Amino acid sequence: MxxxxxxxxxxxxxxxxxxxxxxxxxxxxxxxxxxRAAAPGDAxxxxxxxxxxHKEPMSIAxxxxxxxxxxxxxxxxxxxxxxxxxxxIRVFDSIMRGYPIGSFLSWKVLPETVxxxxxxxxxxxxxxxxxRHNPTVDIPTDRxxxxxxxGQQRLTSLNIGLRGTxxxxxxxxxxxxxWSYPERRLYLNLLGGAxxxxxGLKYHFQFLTKExxxxxxxxxxxxxxxxxxxxxxxxxxxxMQIPAKYGVGNNETAVALAAKLWQEIHHRASLHFxxxxxxxxxxxxxxxxxxxxxxxxxxxxxxxxxxATAQWEGDARAAVHGLVDSLNQTGNGFNFSRDTILKSxxxxxxxxxxxxxxxxxxxxxxxxxxxxxxxxxxxxxVAVGLLSDFGLSGGALTADSVLIPVAYxxxxxxxxxxxxxxxxxxxxxxxxxxxVLRSLIVRGVWGSGxxxxxxDLREVLRSNGGSAFPVxxxxxxxxxxxxxxxxxxxxxxxxxxxxxxxxxxxxxxxVLFPHxxxxxxxxxxHVFPAxxxxxxxxxxxxxxxxxxxxxxxxxxxxxxxxxxxxxxxLLPGLxxxxxxxxxxxxxxxxxxxxxxxRSAFLARHSLPSPLPHSVDEFTAFxxxxxxxxxxxxxxxxxxxxxxxxxxxMGPSTAGLDEELTEGDYED
Length: 667
What we know:
Layout: H1 9-18, H2 31-38, H3 60-68, E1 72-75, H4 85-97, E2 104-109, H5 111-114, E3 119-120, E4 125-127, E5 136-137, E6 145-150, H6 152-163, E7 165-167, E8 183-193, E9 203-208, H7 210-215, E10 224-226, H8 228-232, H9 236-245, H10 252-267, E11 273-276, H11 281-292, H12 301-311, H13 316-328, H14 338-348, H15 363-371, H16 373-389, H17 403-413, H18 426-441, H19 450-464, H20 471-480, H21 489-496, H22 505-512, E12 522-526, H23 535-539, H24 552-562, E13 568-572, H25 573-579, H26 584-591, H27 595-604, H28 618-636, H29 646-649, H30 656-660
Parallel strand pairs: 1-6, 2-11, 4-7
Antiparallel strand pairs: 1-3, 2-6, 3-5, 7-8, 8-9, 8-10, 12-13
Helix pairs in contact: 1-9, 1-10, 4-6, 9-10, 14-17, 16-17, 17-19, 18-22, 19-20, 21-28
């Protein structure tokens, strides 16, 4: 190999080591990897030395070439790509350190099974604005394919970092403008390690735009090198030219970093695949869900959507994606998943068994779903519009599943958007609103035993929901399934302990104060200003003789009460901004000119009179407001007819499911 005059001895040494020919090569401890390094052109003559079910380890570059050639693909079992840039950077940092990045699970899909699925390619150029979905690929049904069941996020991250781009929104940018999502590539600083950071990163990787690169030209401590060039440099000779190309050919740090990255990408067989070849879909599905349960839990809907796609005449995946995207743009925005929408489809189509099982996604049920998709989509739009009218959005909706019975009620009555505004429907809307918000307040209603509950609610709505929302019957069914909305001391205490910023807090305030028109913009406001109960502000209070007004224990207590529900109320956005941090009694006097108006305001919000003026009066105010709210909670949560019709419901299923998921619920 000829050496450039600019190539230092250290370059030649590192290149030789990276190629696997140096005497000191200790990169690979796997005997098969060593054999491959010694005889890279002799792969066809090597016997496969591995355990049953395990494929021979491969390098990252080899895996990406298979992705590039669409030899390694994704079934529709997979969710969309969800990793953030920092996660990609962390995986590249791990690679540079020689850390394992986990094993991978692939599935050999035989020709007779291929026709049951829709397949996708790996994401290469991700954009949070307009390119979040994997590209479709057409696979001939006369050959087998290898599909990735576990490891999509990691492999996609490697594909984006080494071959593609990542476009995410700039801080403060408009979410609906394309220029707020500039294209970024992954770069490595060749002149040094990562600055001090909380993620524990050693190597300085960063996603940069063209503008970022231009701005960094004058920084003598950085030479940004596009990581994609390492992937393109398949041979050591090509890698050797990289440091010189960026003017750092004689910098040992730069040479070592480039060589290390090349070695980890092209030379080290670091990816270990376990291959499943069974064609039993239920078994593969079970394996898939279990191996993914350590991270963000994946559901059966990811696989079932691909089966639905095979059964529909149209593209089920496109239909579901389009509906999800459209629904999530309603009002202030929601975060509904494919799971929720597919489950809604099964319920609205009156499919008997609504569980996510392969048999429920057979041709007959999918024909019903496809035939009624337009009407179901319209009902879901009305239902999401109602949730938005109730003041809910992605941040305040603690359980997406509440959408399903609302949509079924709308669908059953064939209600359109006019229902949301009709004066004649006001009382019915209020009954629906109260039930929705209360069901979101009580912990665990939409957790375990969901399918059983949804079937029960569907039956109640089918039998009793023809002309009005049957609140009493609905709550009877819920109570029998261990999902009672009845008031208990524990529930009251749980509700009154809610804090500012928690997802359940807005629904609580909205249901307790139905005078609030949640179609307008309302803010959660501190009755007694939060700024006055800040620890630093409390510490500054002094007695007449100069001693601290509050002890350390009193300061802790006051600060802990500041964000609790008894000190919170809902105010119109502009009104809340104008209130600022004025004393509550002063604000009330300035806002309402007459005593009658002030009294009416206090009564509407269950506020004691008089409102506090100083911190000294806050504790007494807090305790009285808490008592007022407790009384209101007990009144609002009364069940109209608490006796459940047990004979119609069958045996209760509450118990083990509740115990297993007890720790799953968050505020």
